[in-house]
Amino acid sequence: MGRFEGGAFRPRRSVELRGVSIPHKKETAQQQTTYMPLPKQIILPMQQHVGVACEPQVKRRAHVDVGTLVGHTEAFMSEDIFSPVSGTVKDVRAIHYSSGKSDMAVVIEPDGEQTVDEAIAPPEVTDYMSLIEAVKHSGIVGLGGAGFPTWLKMDTDLANIDSWLVNGAECEPYLSSDYREMVERPQTILAGIKACLDYSGVPRSLICIEDNKPQAIELLRSMAADDDRIDVFVLPARYPQGASRVILRNVTGRSVPRGGHLTDVGALLFNVTTMSEIGRFLQDGMPLTKRRITVMGDVVERPQNLEVFIGTPIGEILDYCGLTDEPRRVVIGGPMMGSTQVEMDSPIVRQNSGLLAFGESAAVVPQTTACIKCSACIDNCPMRLAPIDIQKAYRRDDVAALDRLMADLCVECGTCSYVCPAKQPLAQSVRLARAYLRAEQRKARGRA
Ligand code: SF4
Ligand code: SF4
What we know:
four-stranded antiparallel beta sheet, 17 strands, Rossmann fold, binds iron/sulfur cluster, six-stranded mixed beta sheet, alpha/beta
């Protein structure tokens, strides 16, 4: 099998310290995962992944069991959706998000029995193609937040791949869901990694963990000691260490070419909970129907890492954890890259790893002042971009300058906004600039 020709793999001894030190606020990290009881209803949107939305496979009043297929499409880029409960389909209807988008959803009322679909059985896997086929029907997507269908990420030309990286950085403040996975279910993480290495023939895997998680580092290192293909790579705790291109550069010294992918430079990168779910699914055959989320924020009465049924409305989760005050801002995901949510009926979907609720502190809108040319946004950008220059170019619709400034490389980490003393809305501007540049480039290609 051929391997990456850009140079032999050598884990780096030191990493470049771009990005920022952010208060971690991971007080839930040392608490054992708790389990939420069945909610009153489950809402399963048909778009819980990057790609084409599924089509509902059940009708109103149908009975479903745990693991029954409820969403599927024959479209290439998608991932099936399964019922996390047994019960009755109450509705198949459109739901609306705070972003203005809407989606079809299957609404299920649990019957409390939790009977399991009789088709559930461990998949038969004999080689890499059958592994991909099994994962294609597992409901597993990138669980760190990306939501990219996992089977599709695996379905790549392996000839060039020499490193299967596992992302356990979890660099966003507050979130400790991946950390709990590493300390509570290291066996399934390693089972997932070993299966992927065995069937793919990729020679090594590195589990990449920030140095503020010593217990996870020690545990995984000792449990992987009997397999010399697997090791732990320790990263400094610095945001956004977990961004894919940042982790790749810091672990392997390689950079993804502009417009390219990690596979172009010999690497695959999977979130650590995603790997664990692959390991578990191969053992019990139950598709992804539950996930752990960190519930925190200054108005959450009982912050915790909570395993919830996918499709549980966020309002029910906040009621379960208790609120000390009316939330002024509710965030799905982490505080740096998450999205604000105003609809309390919206459900947790499979790629969500956090639910944060903030009170008055979040209601204060920072006053924006003029740029003082301190260069902090440039010095700290992990992608070595110049956010203030990109913002200026975007405001004057200068496509050539946006291209020159490589706005498309932004990983939307929010570091530039965080460090700016003038409170300029840099991350938002760069995100818009990136979308604008891509749209203009598509138009130009269409004209060519
Ligand atoms: S420009 Fe993008 S990648 Fe750079 S700091 Fe801002 S949000 Fe992060
Ligand atoms: S960090 Fe803010 S104030 Fe400093 S150069 Fe960038 S935009 Fe200007």
